[in-house]
Amino acid sequence: MYYHESIDSKSKIFPVKIILHDKAVNVPKHWHHSLEISYTYQGSIPDFTIAGKHYSTRPGTILVVNSNEIHSVFFPKTKKRQDSLALSLIFPYPFLMKIVPNYRYRRYEIPDKELLTANNQQNLAELEGILKKFFQFASHQTNSLDEISKTSQILQILYLLTKNFSSIVTTPNDLATTDKPFERLDEIIMFIQEHAKEALTVTKIADHFNLSTSYFSRNFKYYMGNSVIEYLNLVRLHEAYQLLTNTKKSILVISTQVGFPNEKAFTRTFKRIYKVTPTDYRKRLSGKNRTNIL
């Protein structure tokens, strides 16, 4: 059971999403059309799976998730979870199609350590150095002029990755799967995300796609691992997180803006997922784990 993650590419200058992680959090299997770069700055990710291949990261590890590759992050319960510091850079598909030559047929891959040539090692060290510097830069409060520097650094990261660790292949990267239910599910997910702020119900969504409520609910749960309402609330919580982190809007305003019927419902759902109330969560952030969109 997988879910499709739609990346919000709205931006001030440059449509690349920056996520700074400072908590050990499991991420279920999912895919998206964007290109994703993961960089571990401190600590480790014990199980980062990309297209069925398992990786265990350490400080300096760089992983690349190509467009439409199923990936996940897992921290085993048998192990003591140690918080790690990591960076994710997510490049929207339309942007890459415009800026990267032959992107539709381009595949990114960093060879396994034992397969690295001397030239690969040098190129990887250069890329790692820039990512480390960028993590340190992005971790601090920035002013409007720093947005220009961020854009420059991200373009340099994309340039080095494309130049040294990509190749042209015969299969286009815009084909998520040949499984028909997944294709329809993609449309449904996009609809939910676009209308999450509205008073959506299972029946309204099913009617929009001319599906029976029972058939729609059953298949959605099968492929997503969550019920329709559970997923809808996760979409709303994702938007709420952005607002809690990057604005001073009140909890009431945020709950209404993202689509919850009232503040009580928002707080109850938020606490069930994050084990803390929105108010306490905002206090704990204190400038850490900020998600920035250039």
Automatic annotation (TrEMBL):
Q: Does the keyword Zinc-finger apply?
A: no
Could you confirm whether the keyword Secreted appears in this record? no
Q: Which SMART domains match?
A: HTH_ARAC
Residues forming the HTH araC/xylS-type domain are: 186-284
What molecular function does GO assign, one term?
sequence-specific DNA binding
Alphabetically sorted, this entry's keywords are: DNA-binding, Transcription, Transcription regulation
Q: Which domain of life is it from?
A: Bacteria
What is the protein name given in its UniProt record? HTH araC/xylS-type domain-containing protein
